[in-house]
Write a structure and sequence with these properties.
- It is built from no helices and eleven strands.
- The protein is an all-beta fold.
- It starts with a strand and ends in a 15-residue tail after the last strand.
């Protein structure tokens, strides 16, 4: 299901919710096409998680199935895998951070390597 909600800028936020992932795609903004990936809910009761270890770095090309990071919950440590390909444009939650709420943007992926510089000062909406 796609939903569209106005934000505080002249752009709009398109959001698609998957069972284990929240992916926000910004369109019609001053930034190049990108996906803002949120802390996924890895179980029905999960409300927050910890970023145990990032497996990617800014600028790195990723493909569907690539191991992005390890997320710790109160019950397990689980590998989070990429759903699409692109380039890591920004990491917004540092390795080792605790209690990141489900739905908070933690990673930005853009489609083109040439667009990486546009996300140097990116802040989540």
């Amino acid at each position: 299901m796609w939903t569209c909600a106005p934000d505080n800028s002249p752009s709009f936020l398109l959001k698609r919710q998957f069972p284990a992932d929240n992916i926000c795609v910004r369109r019609f903004s001053s930034l190049p096409s990108h996906s803002a990936l949120s802390m996924p809910a890895l179980s029905p009761t999960m409300r927050q998680g910890n970023i145990a270890k990032w497996m990617v770095k800014v600028g790195q090309k990723i493909s569907a199935g690539d191991h992005i990071c390890d997320i710790e919950t109160d019950k397990a440590t689980i590998a989070w895998e990429a759903q699409d390909e692109g380039y890591v444009a920004a990491i917004l939650a540092p390795e080792g951070v605790s209690d990141v709420p489900v739905g908070k943007v933690v990673l930005v992926v853009c489609e083109n390597e040439a667009d990486l510089g546009a996300f140097a000062n990116y802040q989540a909406p």
